[in-house]
Amino acid sequence: MAGGWGPRAGAWTSSQAAWNASSGAPGTGNGPLSGPWFSTHKTHLLAVLLAAASNFLISVSLNIQKCAHLRLVCQVEQKPYYRSKLWWCGITLLGLAEVGNFTAYGLAPVTLVAPLGCVSVIGSGFISVFFLKKTMRTADILGGTLTITGIYLLVAFTPNVPQELTARQVQNYLVSWPFLVYSILEIIIFCILLYFYKRKAVKHIMVLLMMVALLASLTVIAVKAVSSMIALSVKGKMQLTYSIFYIMIVLMATSCAFQIKFLNQAMHLYEATAVVPINFVFFTTSAIISGVIFYREFQSAALLTVFMFLFGCLLSSLGVIIIARNKKEEHLQIPFIDCGHIPGQKLTGKIQPDSHSSCYGTLNKEDDSVKRQS
Per the confidence metrics, is the pTM higher than 0.90? Predict the structure, then answer.
């Protein structure tokens, strides 16, 4: 039996390895742990590590800022949050993390860096369990496993395309017909959503986050272009003298500002447990589409590579949704007196305790009995 199966097994193995090598899939001598694969993708791995560390740092910085806000609420003498050293520490870490993400976009494809935002969700779960002493749920373990598996597939099947983008290449991409069609469709969809948002006062979570995603696609394109041109200029190939560099900076700053505006609106109106997963799925989808259309990152990729990459994105998205689903939202416990249920009294709003007075709050005192009670 062994002698009969040996030649056929050897032939099948060699043909499978040849097929894997031609399709770009991990196989014998071409897998994620092999020498040739590592030498080809070492820049991508550096970008993955940088993006993952940056996204984890983002979760740390957000938790530090949250801690600063909680401390300020508990203080007797209230002061603005920007006077808190702890808050500034969180902002500094956030700035460093965004610089890391900016650098990662210059080293790897957009389609690889953008989905790694799921690391911040895992990071928040890690911090809440090990430092804030919260209970780890079964959903957290399942979601984390799916997300890590998806990240592995993203790294293993990312398209290996040149990342050095010159100013002239960016100009050519801007006037290419696929991007022009994509831009026209995106502008039309955004204007329709903006009309319902402004004129019809439709502030549904899907409307807000779709506008965020459309703006994010432009932000990702601009960040990739600016980061790549700066990297080439540092290497001695000056790109900063081209006008397209400054056009991309303006596009990056403008789209990012409006993106933050709509995202803050969504966070104000809806729970973070609903906003985070939907925003991640929309942002990742828009970033992949923009990378495919503008930078043509899957132009020469094999069908198996595309399928496995998209499968990795799907697993990462499912992991984020599972982690955020049914997670209890925390609210700041700010004490106040609500006089809406006291018979005969008018409600003047939520009445804060006055620590400098013997009177606990301020009522509409219409008779002497109320004055004596206060």
Answer: no
- Is 311:160 a contact under the CB 8 Å cutoff? no
Cα separation, 66 vs 55, in Å, equals 17
Judge whether 363 and 370 are in contact, CB under 8 Å: yes
State pLDDT tens for residues 144-178. 899 999 988 988 888 777 667 899 999 999 999 99
In 159-170, which positions are buried (b, 16+ CB within 10 angstroms) versus exposed (e)?
Answer: bbbebebebebb
In tens, the pLDDT along 332-373 reads 444 444 444 444 544 444 444 444 444 444 444 444 444 444
